[in-house]
Every structure is written in structure tokens, then in C-alpha cells.
């Protein structure tokens, strides 16, 4: 299989049926990579108060975004709460080839919305909520003039979750919660073929799946709080169409399908409040990317096309601190160390995954009827060097990949 893919990514100028078979097989493989990463491995950033604290909130979770971070936390809210937010990120990816050729991914801002609603019933230890957010997604566009254009050019992923939850305050110190997730995903991908000048392969597909989200919040003492959040694994079967151009001489389009697994993850944390003005929290976030070993695309017209990814599970280490300033105002800072999950042998430019350092800061105010918050964070990696042998399928993507992205989030809550 490696030798066939190697032949596929080598530019040739003449058209042969065997070459066409190989190029389409390789194209389907790279679609899978686009679906998974599309400029971002995962989006754990679902609220500015959490982002400002380095997403270390599973043991705090005291606003409507708790539906994502730890749904048990919504029992801390009173009455009805509606929270609207917007997360905006610029990818900030740069590439340098072994020969010194440089490229920069399009850094246009990408916007990701967040919507949460919570209702805590009067005189009942029960709260219900509904969240709408994007736990995976964003986009990356390298253009068509890079050394690896025959591996990847452009990809985008939409993964939208609808998450109703119900939470029960079993005891004044202990709450539990659970709720289903209904997930819709859409993926697109483009790359050069390398068969004739100006040719291109593209894919567009979508799918729906279901999972669940659960949480526990325990505060045995006013100074200490513990939280746990679990999100189930999901698998989306993408149904769509792939096409090649120019057509003719290449085939116009064909129906394709393939399943992609998104991992289960567990987040546990502890919050320490030495005084009413300070809150320190540390969270450990584990994502089971090791469950994603292979993707098989079916009904390609050339049989089933397998892709071995051999991903590894990874951790995020999250720390945050919040200082109350009086009159409802507060300020927060945070830090995350995010481990890489993609091995060198399966690296793709649409997945510039690396060991990432993230810093954050934010401020806001809690009022009687309105809350608001704003946060900024950056992600940095000084350079991940990829040096695969010439026999590797992604050999043209060898080089150094640097990351420096910037992101903002703003949100407001109306309480009634």
C-alpha cells in the first residue's frame, strides 16, 4: 500500500487508468485527516470565564456553560439563565520545508458560537439545561503553492452538538447530571492530484450521531470542591460526494462514505478557595484518541480504502486562578499544556498537531440580572520537525511546522 501511495503522490504528466485508481485511493485517505483536524484537534474552549482560567473549571462550573464543562454544576444556578457567546480564533500556522521553502496558512478569523439555557426549579433539587456548541471544528487553508499540495490544500469541519441535560442536587454538597448529545457534522476537503497541471480532488459529506455527557460536583468544604466530567465516544458515518477536475479527462464525481471515530474523554479537577476572593483550580483532561486506529472509506468504486492513523491518547494539564475585585468584578489567568496525539508517521499539514503551550487572561462581572465576560488566549509551539523516509505516504510534507494562534471569547448571561 505504501508503494502505491508513493506512486500516487509523485507528479506525472500522462493519464493512465492505474494511476487514476491510485490517486483516488490516496485522496480518500487524506479526507479522513481533514475531517479530524481541519486546523484544530479539538475545541475545549466553550466559554470566556473558563478560557481565562485555562479551561480549569470542572470543579467550579458555576455558569450556564457548565452544560459543556460539567453539567452537575448547573444546580448552583438560580431561576432561568440564558448565555450567548462567540469564540473567534486565527489559526497561525507556518511551514518551512527542508530546502527552506516557506508557507503560511490562511489566518482569517473563524467564529464559533455558544448558546446555553438553564432552569433551576423553585423548591426542587433539580435543574435542566440545553447547550448548543461545537466541540470539534474550524478550518485551515494552505493554498495550492506549497510543496505538499498533492497531500493537502484546504479542509474544513463543522461539528455541532445539541446537549439537553438534567441535574439533581442529591445533597447540599453533591450534585450529579447526565444528558444526551445529538451531533451533526459536515466536512469538506481539497487537494491537488498531481496527474495533470491544475487538477484537483475535493470531497463534501455530512452525518449525524448520538452520545452522552455526564458530570459530578462535590463540595465537602467551602474551601474545597471536586468535579468530574465524562463525554462518550461518538462515531459519524459521513455520506457525500467526491469529485475531480478538470472533467474530462478525469471522472466528474462519485458517491463515497466512511466512518470517523471521535474519542471519549474524562476531565477531573480540584478547586481550592483559600478565601472568598480567590479560587485556584487544577484539571487533568484525558482524551482517548488511541481508539482511532484506522478509517475505512467504502463504495469508492475501487473497493474499500483503509487508512491507518495509529493515534495515541493524550492529556491536557490545565491550571487557572480567579480573583474577585469587588462589586461583582473579577479577573482570571490560566495555563494549559496540551500533548500531541498524532505520530510523525501519520502527520498531515491539515493536522499541525503538536505539544502546545497555551496562556490566557480575562475579566468580567457578575450582576443581579446580567453577567458578562471576555477572554483572550494564545497557543504556541516553537516548531515540530517532521522527517519521514521517502517511502512514507506523506513524505512531501516533511519540514518544520510552527504554531502561534490567537483567540478571543465574549459571552453574556441574562437571568430571569
How does this structure look, described?
It is a single chain. The protein is 9% helix and 55% strand. The protein has helices at 2-9, 17-37, 48-52, 66-69, and strands spanning 79-90, 93-96, 102-104, 110-120, 126-141, 154-171, 174-191, 200-221, 224-231, 234-245, 253-262, 265-272, 278-287, 294-298, 305-308, 314-326, 329-338, 356-366, 370-386, 399-415. A 14-stranded antiparallel beta barrel has the order 1-4-5-6-7-8-9-12-13-16-17-18-19-20. Strand 14 and strand 15 (305-308) form a beta hairpin. The chain is mostly beta strands and 416 residues long. The chain is elongated and about 70 Å long. The protein is built from four helices and 20 strands. It starts with a helix and ends with a strand. The chain has a single domain, classed as Beta Barrel (Porin), CATH 2.40.160.
Key features of this structure:
mainly beta, 416 residues, elongated, Porin, disordered N terminus
Helix content: under 10%
What would the principal axes of the Cα set say about the shape?
elongated
First-to-last CA distance: 61 Å
- Share of residues in strands: over 45%
Name the CATH superfamily classification. Answer: Outer membrane protein transport protein (OMPP1/FadL/TodX)
Quick take:
The chain has 416 residues and is mostly beta strands. It has four helices and 20 strands.
Question: What order do the helices and strands come in, and which of them pair?
Answer:
Elements: H1 2-9, H2 17-37, H3 48-52, H4 66-69, E1 79-90, E2 93-96, E3 102-104, E4 110-120, E5 126-141, E6 154-171, E7 174-191, E8 200-221, E9 224-231, E10 234-245, E11 253-262, E12 265-272, E13 278-287, E14 294-298, E15 305-308, E16 314-326, E17 329-338, E18 356-366, E19 370-386, E20 399-415
Antiparallel strand pairs: 1-4, 1-20, 2-3, 2-20, 4-5, 5-6, 6-7, 7-8, 8-9, 8-10, 9-12, 10-11, 11-14, 12-13, 13-16, 14-15, 16-17, 17-18, 18-19, 19-20
